[in-house]
Amino acid sequence: MTVQQGNILIVEDNPDLAYGLRTGLEIEGYEVAVAEDGETGLSRAKQWLPDLVILDLMLPGMDGYRVLRSLRDDGLEMPVLILTARGQEADKVLGFRLGADDYVTKPCGVLELLARVGALLRRSRMSERGTHVGGDSIEHFGDIEINPASRTVTRAGQVVALSPKEFDLLLTLVRRRGAVVSRVELLREVWGHRVEVMTRTVDIHIAELRRKLEDDPSAPRHILTVWKAGYRLEP
Question: Looking at domain 139-233, which of 1.10.10.10, 3.40.50.1010, 3.30.365.10, 2.30.30.220 is its CATH number?
Fold first, then answer.
């Protein structure tokens, strides 16, 4: 008997692709529902509260960006994996700014997609259990305060809105302050990837953290790039 791994909602208007994804996920033990347009997907996500959403961007009616924005505006923080043929970096940046957790460009292999899904669910469950390494002690650097227990960040006393992955990335860097952390390490620790895939994901999230937390994102004082090595956080 297959162990039930979690509930996944696929929002995809290509029936052949949706069928293939659903079949692969169900074989792995997931309970899967499919919505063929944005409005239906948004309604189903709010009613069913799946453990993870696989979301296409190019949907009829309400596109994937609007679906994602509505989910996050309503306080729904389940992981969202964007699956789309649009591979431009600007599209990825917008998706991450709206709260996407990962991004896969079509066509992609089923095994890679299953690995991404598994990694996102593991990280989500760790976050829910409060098992991030380092406990819940409040962290500081510059005028930034990070509260792991409430998953909130303030800058000079003002709350800064971070996506779940931005928060996890920042906390990982803070807890290894002064040390260089490679992109591969960050992909493993924050996204759960076991291999080096889509390293631009890290770079895009770093750029967003700088935009939100640095006085001058083009000349950061705290979140530093170490050429050909990775990133380092300096207090």
Answer: 1.10.10.10
